[in-house]
Backbone:
């Protein structure tokens, strides 16, 4: 009987660790792209930010690989903002283009520092 309880405890621990690891990997994936990390940094400084304004700020950022604001806005809308929204970093209004942080700023800073 004691062995079964130990096995159950180990299974519970492995399940909890697996869930934590999976969340960490998903979050790291959301933060893997420079544009997403820089967008979060911008939102930490000023929010809400419209998608168009965010694209212009990213286009002026030397760390972002592209400098075409229209192209960046399209990738924000179709790729980057939905990915950040799916990982609960931001709330993105697809109609108005407004983007705000969903997580507490300290949690976002911590996530950015860990990547």
Residues:
């Amino acid at each position: 009987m004691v062995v079964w309880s130990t096995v159950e405890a180990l299974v519970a621990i492995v399940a909890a660790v697996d869930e934590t690891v999976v969340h960490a990997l998903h979050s790291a994936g959301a933060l893997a792209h420079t544009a997403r990390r820089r967008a979060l940094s911008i939102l930490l400084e000023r929010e809400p930010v419209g998608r168009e304004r965010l694209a212009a700020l990213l286009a002026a950022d030397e760390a972002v690989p592209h400098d075409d604001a229209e192209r960046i806005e399209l990738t924000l809308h179709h790729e980057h903002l939905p990915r950040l929204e799916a990982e609960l970093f931001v709330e993105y209004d697809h109609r108005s283009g407004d983007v705000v942080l969903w997580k507490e700023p300290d949690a976002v800073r911590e996530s950015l520092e860990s990547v």
User: Anything to note?
Assistant: Residues 65 and 94 are 24 Å apart (CA to CA). The chain has one domain: 2-114. The longest helix spans residues 2-30.
